[in-house]
Amino acid sequence: MQTDRVLIIHTGGTIGMLPTEQGLAPAAGFEQLLRQRLAERLDTLPAFDLLELDPLIDSAELSPRQWNSIAAPVIERYGDYAGFIVLHGTDTLAYTASALSFMLQGLAKPVILTGSQIPLAERRSDADSNLLGALELAVRPEINEVCIYFNGRLLRGNRSVKMDASALSAFESPNLAPLGEVGIAISLRTDLMLAPGKPSFSSPEFDPAAVAVIRLFPGISATLIQAVLSQPGLGGVILQSYGVGNAPTSDAALMETLESAIAQGTTVVNLTQCSRGAVAGDTYATGAALSRIGVISGADLTLEAAFAKLHWLLAKKLSAAEVAMQMRQPLCGEKQAS
Ligand code: ASP
């Protein structure tokens, strides 16, 4: 096997969808369409093989269990390719990018996730440029991490979120500058990128019930929080609090509910509901009270990265103390060092 080739792992998503009576849905025959579409340029592009997950899915159907199937070809064929592209629906792409970043630590080659807002089969589609850019980036030796390439920008996977439901510029990494821009030239921020590592891959079996997200809203009750915490199999909760990490901590029942779940070994991570910025620990009494009962600050983690990281740590069957310690530390560029 030549090592200047790229492996494209097609998981589904709009990029390969065709219209049906029920709306856009994943369709067979993507590779043929892709090769036809790129026909005139194939000689100038990195050679690639394409592998399709079975079944192809709309990424809204994704469960953490599928992260293992998406990581598997990268793990099994790591030595055979210069880089990897994962074609994925945009809806949960940032979750998968985050999960892959924890599962594929120590990369020394690129893993680039992309997709499109308009199917490749349509005359006017963002799929062509996203694919062409991803192919060029997937052979760049400077990239040693899981990234998202979308609409001209290369973003760190575990820092990215889908910000726009309909614009072609769907992704942003609110707390980290883009790692690269593809314009007339390709410019890469090597100063921000992870250094090449030694593969330390781990693909533990995920339990979809292990992590839940609770978004605070004015008037949220201890009963509602308790209902979530009572889910069988739950090991961790992400609490999306207000601003720099504030919650209605004068609600004694709510605080008791959280405190007793933590005492029983549930990991609770505090994240901000704001699209940008970080939980700043103890600025306000309403935030400091959460820290006192053992809620862990997620600092500037995205929801997607916190969710995937918590899943990954719990799937590895670590103790609550170990999960808490690793949640606080940056493992692969997902958060600021605290
Ligand atoms: N629903 C689609 C998906 O996530 C949306 C997209 O790909 O843009 O699979």
State the gist of this model.
Helix content is about 25%, strand content about 20%.
Structural class comes to alpha/beta
Count of helix runs: 9
Topology order in helix (H) and strand (E) letters: EEEHEHEHEEHEEEEEEEEHEHEHEHH
Total beta strands? 18
β-strand percent reads 15-25%
The helix fraction, in percent, is 25-40%
**What best-fitting shape do the alpha-carbon axes yield?**
elongated
Overall tally of structural domains = 2
What does the largest sheet look like? 8 strands, mixed
Arithmetic mean of pLDDT: 96
CATH architecture of the largest domain: 3-Layer(aba) Sandwich
Classified in CATH, the superfamily of the largest domain is: L-asparaginase, N-terminal domain
Low-confidence stretches: none
Q: List each distinct ligand once.
A: aspartic acid
CATH class of the largest domain: Alpha Beta
Radius of gyration: 20 Å
What features would you describe in this structure?
With 338 residues, the chain is of the alpha/beta class. It has two domains: 5-201, L-asparaginase, N-terminal domain (Rossmann fold), CATH 3.40.50; 211-328, Rossmann fold (3-Layer(aba) Sandwich), CATH 3.40.50.40. The chain has helices at 30-37, 65-76, 93-103, 127-137, 222-229, 252-263, 285-292, 303-315, 320-328, and strands at residues 6-12, 17-20, 23-26, 48-57, 83-87, 104-105, 111-114, 146-150, 153-156, 161-162, 171-172, 180-182, 186-188, 200-201, 211-215, 236-241, 267-272, 296-297. An eight-stranded mixed beta sheet has the order 4-1-5-7-8-9-12-13, with helices on both faces. The chain has a four-stranded parallel beta sheet with strand order 15-16-17-18, sandwiched between helices. α5 (222-229) runs parallel beside α6 (252-263). The longest helix is centred in the last third of the chain and has 13 residues, at 303-315. It is elongated and about 65 Å long. The termini are far apart. The mean pLDDT is 96. Bound molecules: aspartic acid. The site of aspartic acid has 11 residues, from loops.
